[in-house]
Protein 1
Amino acid sequence: MRMLSRFLPGLLCLCLLFGLPQAVQAQDDPGQPLLEALDTSSYADKAEAIEVIIESGDERSRRWLEALLNGKLQRHKDNQRFVIVLENRGRHWPVADALSFEEAGEMSRRELDRIGINNALRGTLQNALSLLDLYVDDADQRRDAARDLLGNVDASMVEPLKAVIENEENAEVRRLLSQALAIYRLDQGDVEAIADLEGSLNQQVRSVLNSAARSDDPVLADAASAALAGIEQKLKLNQGLETLYFGLSLGSVLVLAAIGLAITFGVMGVINMAHGELIMLGAYTTWGMQQLLPGQPGLALVLSIPAGFLVAALAGIAIERGVIQFLKGRPLETLLATFGVSLILQQLVRTVISPQNRTVVSPEWLSGSVMINEGLSLTLNRLYVLGFALLVFAGLMLVMRKTRLGLEVRAVTQNRAMARSMGIRATRVDIMTFALGSGVAGLAGVALSQLTNVGPNLGQNYIIDSFMVVVFGGVGNLWGTLVAGLSLGVINQVLEPWVGAVLAKIIVLVFIILFIQKRPKGLFPQKGRAAEG
Amino acid sequence: MITLQRQPHARYLAAALVSAAVMGASSQALAQQDDPIKVGILHSLSGTMAISETVLKDTVEMLIEQQNDAGGLLGRELEAVVVDPASDWPLFAEKARELLAQEEVDVIFGNWTSVSRKSVLPVVEELNGLLFYPVQYEGEESSENVFYTGAAPNQQAIPAVDYLMNEVGVERWVLAGTDYVYPRTTNKILDAYLKSHGVSDDDIMINYTPFGHSDWQNIVSEIKQFGNEGKKTAVVSTINGDANVPFYRELGNQGVNAADIPVVAFSVGEQELSGIDTGPLVGHLAAWNYFMSVDTDANYDFIDAWIEHTGDEMAVTNDPMEAHYIGFNMWAEAVRKAETTDVDAVKDAIIGVTVPNLTGGYAAMMPNHHITKPVLIGEIQDNGQFSIVWQTPSTVAGDAWSDYLEGSRDLISDWRKPMECGNYNVVEGSCGGGEAETE
Amino acid sequence: MQSVDSSQRFWLTRPFRERATQLFLGVLFAALLLVTVLHLAVPQGHPLHVTAYTVNLFGKYLSYALLAVSVDLVWGYLGILSLGHGAFFAIGGYAMGMYLMRQIGDRGTYGDPVLPDFMVFLNWDSLPWYWLGFDMAWFAFVMVLVAPGLLALVFGFLAFRSRVTGVYLSIITQALTFALMLAFFRNEMGFGGNNGLTDFRELLGFDLRTDATRLGLFLATGVALALGYILCRAIVTSKLGRVSVATRDAEARTRFLGYRVERFQLFVFVVSAMLAGLAGALYVPQVGIINPSEFSPIFSIEIVLWVALGGRATLYGAVIGALLVNYAKTVFTGIMPDAWLFALGALFVFVTVFLPKGVAGLLAHRKRKTQEQKNQARKPQEATT
């Protein structure tokens, strides 16, 4: 951290200089020796060189440092020219001159030497850059920068930081910076600093209190332990909430995976072993969309929702027309045929696309987490999936309860002959129902692409769980599926910290077995006519 | 019932099902006349392991093509015999037997998982075949018929931990792995190693998860908690293949970044990263003996050839592919040296054979059937590649029997003439176990 | 199904009077004999020679066939679609595997006289209690039947008592095998974790790596299949079997007639589990490994597919299905490694759509074409079971 403070003045004037126009000569450029100093194998020398760059006040410094940070500052092996790589995928990379920033065509990976950087250096650089952010106008940015400084303060920064705190208008930023200072003071053995840290749930605060509690000074150790005890109390509640969230999140994944099956299997009675592969198709649709719309992962993801539904629904129609319609009234044989279909679909993906997993990018708004308080953050992608699952469920309930299709589906499944004699085209209803269930599976795939691997085995990982959820909830009951999925998720996550992931899963399975003994028709057994099927 | 009777009838039945069966059989008959050298490839092309193993099949096919373009071996063509063991462990044994007994291949390149190797091992030993195994593994094995071109624990895990301890200053360790023999052994070795370096029990957390684990919320949260004790913490991950994508996603989303808690992985390579958006993972580490980003001409040539072979400009290479590259060249060199593909002759000739690796050095086959390798530590970049931050000054020879495990400390392996033993006990002065009787 | 001989003879000998059983046993023993002769008497290299590899392969198929018969017994005649029969198969296999492990003795890698290699490796001090006794062949062989039988007894007792039926029963059998798979994957269980048990050497003193032992195992499996088949036939043709069929077709009615349906179900289920265990025990020494993947739900589903493909409720259909699918798998994975799943998948679809009664149905159809037509006309709803 000492180096960081030495950067500070340089960075500040860098900030001021930024944006001033300046003509650059390729030859005799003052930047050339600055960059050359970076081209060394010793990380200590590199740190020196970085310092020199900052102190030089060269307006291009920030871009150089950012390029260095991203590993994109490179040097041509033959002509020794420094370049900044603009895009580093594949074999041939578009580059720009590091001195003039003019585009310099493509260079082969083979011809370039990277200016290496390691974690320690990266951390220092990042801190230095984030320290700059304390001076920007945007309060949010200042807050994030202040948070980054927690645990990263050293002696030489104390005075400048005190000055910053005094001028800071935002209370939150002031609090964070004071905490950052307090952490430093506590680290130096200052008992009074504990008062500033009490009640904070921040990781760095707990970290420094923990090490203080182990200190040889009994006064300090006691005070730190007392402060920790207060924090632990608060944390307990947070942890409870966190576990609940984990459980609901896992449950929502189960619900999403199973809900389509609740239609095809629960309502239509088709033991659809290809259900997992329909989920997989949805996930691959997301990947395909992102390939079609490069650079716009968010838009692609949103468009994948209808597209994934359509692709999976069309595949479902093909399966229904091609196989299942010949198996009317022979539900067990649908298992055999759809298992065959699932093998074919898996291998098709392996052959046509690739046996490897595909990258599905998470858009910005799905990455990271939303902070409830400093001890509890909810991961965004899972939060969205949870919401999405509930939306899909609500949508499906609407379709089944409020639309003509839903009415017809229920009629046909309860008494096919009667429904037909009432003028319902049973064949059409079959197709529509199966397409609906398959389409929902596709939606699950779109959501799962944000959580897990998109690969040929995706479906296999969810098919068993899906059947388990549908049966546990009670075949033919959508509410059952929802309750079953969420409760199994919560049970699993509550157990996991105690017994580990494997035993938790085993216990859940044994629980399902025993539960079915008690209630042989699941959580919500069907009543009346439908139950006879 | 017809299938039970005998081969021709059985063939007839298959033909009735799929005419291709007959075509396959007759093409085999034709091939025998040309008398090519047969190279068996035993990698799963379907099932759970296809993700990792398919590229290895393609790699060996590419190497065979290159060898044929260069005039074959001993003036004979090489021919690949590909079978699909379908990620099914007993099927691995069956297919190995098919390759050795029916197809009479001269060498097999294959396997990925430990269990598949264990399944194949008795077959290869019984039928006296040659197997080149390209994946990093747990050690504790040395077979006369198997050549281990992947890393043993001392060629991957221990240097990585050394790096974290000395260069990064890590004091607290999370050993997280998938529950099977490779992570178990590695963690056991590391546990012993760390304790011998003064790390206390409280500072080590060991966690196992099942294969394909996809819900990491709790575990990542626990790791965060564990890292809050005021000491620099690192995660040593032996999490297997598929489970890594959700693991890293969860790490990124819960805000565990490499500056706070670095994760060093032994099973995550370029191939695995190609399924992840690596933006949030920059700085996390992996230890391997090869990275695609290695800056040597041999490596660039290899990558060019690979891209041409796959026809995919974005195709990536990884460590087990390099292992096959080394293994294949070693075998070819040994065949040239022995002037025959006879298994016993090649087995004798290959010890001591040295071939260039892709990282600018040489790999030598040691008497214990393991090879010498450099150890590289790389940090994940935003483009799914690794940037090398540290490497061992020289190559490290693979150790079949770990020095940090109770039972194997006294064992050595030497397949050269007088000793010819895979588990010689230096204390008792005898060749222990049943391997001695292998004839 | 063959018409049942109603005369009051001893139930176990009754199957021998059936044409179908006679034919089946005839073909089976002829095949066993033929393979043996072609293996031993025809010199190597001769086109008619059956190699040790092929003998070994057939041995494996036959153990699968026995497994399929056990599934057909509960599915075909009791109407219980078990999606967890792989569990019984695997437990039988593990019992045999444990015996084979103990036979290694001090010839393991670490030379420990008692502990298997993987236990030495994971620092076990002594053998866990459930491994005791497995050094004795008789005990292990008894456990091959008792362990799966016991599991089936407990599980079946709970399930049938509370009248869990249909798809609910199928799914909890699946949950059972899934839970067991996860449990056996755990290294703490003491069954070798994911690697399972391997590196077997000898069985009853016979070296497992010799061709003679392989032939012996092949023949033993053939005989076991024959015995299992006869036992199943006997059960099916007995009064008990007829009650079972009645249960399958109308459980409630059978109950109202005064039969304690759950007892019949439990008995047949346990017998079937034991047969599956036996199949597993014969399978393990032939393939040389037992590992938790045999517990995987997908494998159990595959078994059901063999039965369905061969023809449900015929027993010999199950045998045909198991042999056919596995032979196809062997051939396809060898000659078209990249595309064999297409072929296998297409086979499943084709058979279901065009041969609703499986291959056995096709055979029967040929033989009794006219009768079949009459049957079909008479009861069109038969298929809904």
Note: The two ends of chain B are 38 Å apart (CA to CA).
Protein 2
Amino acid sequence: MTRHLTRRDTLAGLAALTALGLAGLRPAAAQTVDEIKKRGVLNIGLLVDFPPFGITNLQGQPDGFDADIAKDLAKDLGVRANLVAVTGPNRIPYLLTGQVDMLVASLAITAERAKQVAFSVPYAGIRIVVYGKTSAVVKEPEDLKKYTVGVARTSTQDVSLSAIAPAGTNIRRFDDDASAVQALLSGQVDIIGAATPVVGEIEKIAPKGAFDTKLTLREQVHGIALRPGQDDLLKAVNAFVEKQKASGALNATFRKWLNTDLPELKTPALGG
Amino acid sequence: MSIQLRFGPVLDAWRELAAGIWLTLQLSAGAMVLGLLLAIGCAWLKLYGPRPARFAVNVYVEVVRNTPFLVQIFFIFFGLPAAGLRLSPDAAALLALVVNVGAYATEIIRAGIESVSHGQVEAGLALGLRRLQVFRLVVLKPALRAVYPALTSQFILLMLTSSVVSAISANDLTSVANNVQSRTFTSFEVYIVVTLIYLALSLAFSALFAAIDRRVFAYPVAR
């Protein structure tokens, strides 16, 4: 059987070639902290279509959680931040071709991506959780049977929740997250499956203490991505993230945008 | 290029589909009967009731006929709990359908009642019947007969409208179809099957209505 070249392979190959060929030529492709400090600008790629992590604000500028982190990071290095809007599919090519020095682009740390880019320690994460009335007692998946559970049909929440819920659980599938949330707020369901950004939105409008998080169904952590070989820069980025974590600044920024505390950020094992 | 249709996963889900058909049938038939009773009551109030009742019926009919069904069902399912009335998805779906078809049928039946000639009413009164008896024994049947085609097509529409109840997680036929297609990625196949089922249900209801027409309304009238 012949293996067809996929678009992804082609892109990655092109990106690698371009990176090899142009790395020495492009002034934008700073490899070390010293180079960046000399230049005075840190080029950071981030998403603008992934609220609340990356958005475009009313002034048309990139904004959101990732933008705040990127600005703090540039300030930490004592340089100006140049925020470059990238998209989900083109963000890694942007990095590998030296268009940007690093990505603060909600890039989930996965083994496959770690083969192409160097990840910092996690600086953010989202979880798919079981969330519901404070009075509902859910300590393990078996407990779900006692309650009415709402999810958005076919969503990641639906898939992960259906996988662990015991047979006979009353799962109500709505057309979207908004309807599932509405069902929770109006008391039509006791519990929902939701991603943490949605939970943040609920806590903004729900009475204090009415709902809480029961279980974590699935989690992903985001890392700042650099090109392989930027070891010195990676060290500086990691130091920045650790410092922000220790001082509580990272959590404060996360709360500002997501209205909830940072989840536990464990660096995933990237075996294989 | 050809599309490969895989009906296997759809047929495997026949139990779910059958349960969906059953709920769709229950909701439709229930809403037809209850909606008809509601509409007859409202039509009577609208024509003969006291002023405040006529006003209330007018408000009901206009509000329901001028707002989308989806909004009505959201209001009943998500809104009523705030007023202390929490209905299950199935009960909320039935209530929403009854309220909806009741409003449309009210206008249809009012037209039917108005088509009954005044002479018949006067004949009834001359026989010593009271107003309500005249309505029940003399007016109602020819009135329904006059608008029967409009009424039944409204009921068929009601059955098709019931597909919206999946929005509040009631597991009707459409809801089951959505679940199956999201699980098996055979959306085209599922919707082909479900379309055929809806078509069959519509035809079955039409046949039922025709049979009722022959049994109940087959009497000669003077022209």
Note: Confidence is low (pLDDT under 50) at residues 23-27 of chain A.
